[in-house]
Specification:
Order of helices and strands: HHHHEHHEEEEEEH
Number of domains: 1
Strand order of the largest sheet: 1-2-3-4-5-7-6
Distance between the termini: 26 Å
Number of strands: 7
Number of helices: 7
Structural class: alpha+beta
Largest sheet: 7 strands, antiparallel
C-alpha cells in the first residue's frame, strides 16, 4: 500500500468513526458482487464520497490493481479499477473550488456512469481528470464557472447515431488531445447519448 492510499484510508476512518476492519466488514457482508454496486452502497447508505468508497472497495477486495500516487503524470492515479473513481475527494476539492463547486455533481454523475464500463485508470491533472486505458479516452473537468466539458479521444464519430454537425458533440481542430468535446451544464445532461459517445472512446482505447 502506498502512502497516499494509506492516508486516504486513515481519513476514511476519521470521517466515518469506524475502524478499517469494521469498514471492510461492511463491504464484505453487503452481499454484493460487483465493484460498482459496492461503491454505490457505501455512497448511498454510508454517505461516502465516490473516491473514498472506491478506495475502500479496492482495499476490501484486495484488488490486484496497483494504487499509485497522485502527481497527475501519465500512469499515476488515485485509484484504478472496474468501478472507476472521481479521484480522491481532495483532488476534486481543488478542481471544483469557488464558483465551480456547484458543477461537481455533474462530474460525479459522469464518473459514476463511466465506472460501469469496466476498468480504467485516472490521472488527475491541474484542472481536469484524464481517463485512460492503454491510452487516454476522455477528459472531464470544469471548462468555465458554468459548465463541465467531456473531451473524447476517438477516431471517428460519423457512424454513431445522433452525431450531426452543430450538435452537442463538437468536433475539435486536428492535433489536439481530444477529437470531440461535449459541454454539460446539469447532471441530467449525462444521458444515454453522451454515455454512448464515451463508451465508443472507451472501447477504442483498449
Amino acid at each position: 500500500m502506498d502512502k497516499a492510499t494509506e492516508t486516504q484510508l486513515a481519513n476514511i476512518q476519521k470521517r466515518t468513526g469506524k475502524t478499517l476492519d469494521q469498514l471492510v466488514a461492511i463491504v464484505k457482508n453487503s452481499g454484493l458482487a460487483k465493484h460498482g454496486e459496492m461503491v454505490a452502497m457505501l455512497k448511498d447508505k454510508h454517505g461516502m464520497g465516490h473516491g473514498d468508497a472506491n478506495t475502500l472497495v479496492h482495499y476490501a477486495n484486495k484488488s490486484a490493481q496497483v494504487f499509485a500516487g497522485t502527481t497527475g503524470a501519465t500512469g499515476t492515479t488515485g485509484t484504478t479499477g472496474s468501478g472507476g473513481t472521481t479521484g480522491t475527494d481532495a483532488q476534486l476539492d481543488r478542481i471544483y473550488t469557488g464558483p465551480k463547486a456547484a458543477l461537481r455533481p455533474i462530474h460525479e454523475k459522469v464518473m459514476a456512469e463511466v465506472g460501469k464500463f469496466g476498468p480504467f485508470e485516472i490521472a488527475p491533472k491541474k484542472t481536469y481528470l484524464s481517463l485512460r486505458r492503454k491510452k487516454q479516452f476522455a477528459m472531464v473537468g470544469p471548462a468555465t464557472n458554468t459548465r463541465v466539458e467531456v473531451g473524447l479521444n476517438v477516431k471517428d464519430m460519423k457512424d454513431v447515431k445522433g452525431v450531426k454537425a452543430g450538435g452537442r458533440l463538437e468536433a475539435l481542430p486536428p492535433g489536439g488531445m481530444c477529437q470531440y468535446k461535449v459541454k454539460l451544464t446539469a447532471p441530467a445532461e449525462v444521458d444515454a447519448e453522451l454515455l454512448g459517445w464515451i463508451k465508443k472512446a472507451y472501447d477504442e482505447a483498449q
